[in-house]
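User: quick one, fold this
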Amino acid sequence: MIGKLKGLIDSYGEDYVILDVGGVGYQVHCASRTLQALPSPGGAAVLSIETYVREDQIKLFGFRTDHEREWFRLLQTVQGVGAKVALAVLGTLPPTDLANAIALRDKAAVARTPGVGPKVAERIVSELKDKAPGFADVDPAVVHLSGAIDNNRAPRPVTDAISALVNLGYGQPQAAAAIAAASRSAGEKAETAQLIRLGLKELSK
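Assistant:
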């Protein structure tokens, strides 16, 4: 199996690059973000490779980092997500943004991917929710709160305060982060109005 290729960019196709490695041209399929980050023809490049072997073909998928390749594999553990959809998701969201979106149950961010509808986005978020926090860089308290909201376990004042901030035009993840911080400083018995006031103060920092 091929795990990594290092060579010179020969040419580009719509969704692939031809990488010249010692005179042999490898066709490597990549996410759009990966292709845009690679150098012009003649430039040197290193790609982490995922090799797919089928009865009728061998297909190579390339990534700028092993971390990105790991997310490609993870995404395909979700029902209904194949290589094409996984590449499209990684073309829309960098790995850290994807991890954050899943950890925060932000289905709308995942659904921005062309070809990914609400149902597939829902499955990605729900099936990978336990794996994403390890890759995310968001406050664990916010992840916990997002999970509680998703499962209808969050205290009423908290959900009301988040709803109020969303109605003011803030995004759900942004509002949840602000109210999580407000809850920490105000305590478990804080009222909705107090949480909103403290949340707005967090957002203005």
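User: anything notable?
Assistant: The two ends are 50 Å apart (CA to CA).
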